[in-house]
Amino acid sequence: MHTIAIPIHDRIALALLVAVNLIPIVGVLWLDWDLASIIILYWLENLVIGFYTILKMLHRRAHQAHD
To answer: Running DSSP on this structure, what letter comes out for residue 28?
Structure first.
């Protein structure tokens, strides 16, 4: 059997992905969240991801301007 070496940053990213996706499940099962709470959570998640994406785009544009 072959083992595949997974870089540590990929393991961390996978762990964070699983953890973030468990939050709504925990909220519904143990914290009595309703549908509105879940929707707000996903909206906030999209805002964070969008902000991070814009930062990456601006960073890349700044580095391309120097080349």
So the answer is: H
